[in-house]
Write a structure and sequence with these properties.
Layout (H helix, E strand, L loop, with lengths): L4 E7 L18 E7 L5 E8 L2 H6 L4 H12 L9 E7 L2 E7 L8 E6 L2 E6 L20 E6 L4 E9 L2 E8 L20
Antiparallel strand pairs: 1-2, 2-3, 4-5, 5-10, 6-7, 7-8, 9-10
Amino acid sequence: MKCSIEVSVNLLPQCRKGCENQTPQTYSGYFLHIALDKGMNMRNFNISPDLTPLYRSAIGFDRLAQLAEHAAANNSNSGYPPYNIELLGENRYRITMAVAGFSMPELDIMSEGEKLLVKGNKTANTDERKYLHQGIAERGFERTFQLADYVRVVSAELEHGLLNIDLVREIPEAMKPRKIDIVTTKTLS
């Protein structure tokens, strides 16, 4: 049975000796997160920015702040598998992931709302190979991408160990800039 304790401390980088009595709201800082397991061993340690000042002074930008907090706290996306994000045109993008060794049935792409989830489930290898060095990863992965408004997946293809996912941003007509004609009113004289 695992038990964890999580401690959050607001670190105030501007605070020097003698200003301990200042209120935390006067400083923008960082939060220190430490997670301890049942034996009080440190299991997880990270520092994330404190976006409280943004919440206090910017109206309507809470989604942007949440995205920044999510990006800072998202440790589950390790460097595996490596990927590129390309800008192909004004509203066209491509995510290219190096998935060597995965076949099409072992890969799964799911788009739900503003999230794109790419999973690779490596089937167990039944061969009894004796490796002198095994540098090619044969483990599954799960990578999540946060999509902007109006971005959707158009296609995906697997070619030469690279998974290409094409995306497009389709802005609705009502959201596009439009010219407003100015008319004059006739006055009666």
